[in-house]
Amino acid sequence: MSDKKFNLRKQLFNWHMWAGVAFAIPVILVSLTAILIAHEKGLGTKKVLVNAGWMPGYQTNEKDLAHYLDDIKAFAQNGEIRYYGTKVGVIEESNQGLTVIAGTEGKEVRDLAFVEAKMLVATKYGLYEINDNQSKELVKGDFHGIQADENRWVASLGKYGIMTSVDQGKTWSEAGKFSENIPSESLAGISSQLVQSGQMEAVALEKLILDIHTGKAFFGEGAMWVWIDLIGLSLLLMTITGIWMWYKRKYGKTSKTTARHQGRVSSPKPIMRPVMKPVLNSESAEI
User: DSSP characters for 166-224?
Assistant: First the structure.
């Protein structure tokens, strides 16, 4: 029975080592990218554009394109022409068919708005102005929405606040985060109202699972990076130590065996030769 337990333990140990080696690259990539995502604001990764067309997931095909087109983020209509904001740009639908507005190709669109003859496009990478099918970048940023009239344009940056322009998008000023402009008494009143409604405690199961996964359920919105860093570093540690264990187990014994073998060949045991004792004759003994 003890031999079976020992063999099972040894087999599990081998599986652990081989699994660590086989999945080392995916686990390392997931761990590192999770940490980078948690600190994207400080690192400024959203402002850096890289060419990822060589990766399989970014190569355009009809199947993936259908998924992107089905995910419509915004819609606007000007006369008989309809505009759809998608993950691959602004799609224009007219009597001539479907076309992608030049300058928006490959950009994830969040919102659309018309002001006079211009169309404003809020994307994940910046705010654009479309006029006579010509695209012009107004300002960089991760925009989620845009509202405009003749006097004032307001664009939202999600959790980073809003930006405003009073000169038709030539210059922009940051209004800061919404909570920074609210008095503490108002924040306390909103918090009390939400607690009394009970809606903050009741969440969909899907959201609860996602919040547990990201650590938001344990640390809150502002500190869930702690959870992500802990998980990412622990996965890295287990992967690296697993590879080290596999390496030492596979090549450590081989090197020791080779060293012993070389030691036996290069350093043979000395041959013991019999020592000849001098024989004393009778004359020597008399002397």
Answer: SSTTSS-EEEE-GGGGS-HHHHHHHHHHHHHHTTTT---HHHHHHHHHHTHHHH-TTTH
d(CA 2, CA 82): 75
What is the DSSP secondary structure assignment for residue 269, as one 8-state letter?
Answer: P
* Residues 128/136, Cβ–Cβ less than 8 Å: yes
Residue 158, both tokens: 């999600």
6 vs 10, 12, 29, CA distance in Å?
6, 10, 34
Q: Look at the pTM and tell me if it is higher than 0.85.
A: no
CA 139 to chain centre: 25
Q: What are the chain's domains?
A: 2-38+187-242 (no CATH), 56-181 (2.130.10.10)
| Residue range 148-207, pLDDT digits in tens | 888 899 999 888 889 999 998 889 988 777 777 777 777 778 777 777 776 656 666 766
| Cα(45)–Cα(37) distance, integer angstroms | 8
**3-state DSSP call for residue 18?**
helix
What region, left, alpha or beta, does residue 83 occupy, with left being phi > 0 and alpha being psi -120 to 50 degrees? Answer: beta
Q: Which residue has better confidence, 195 or 230?
A: 230
Q: Where are the beta strands (DSSP E) in the chain?
A: 74-78, 81-86, 89-94, 97-100, 109-115, 118-123, 126-131, 134-140, 145-148, 153-156, 162-165, 173-176
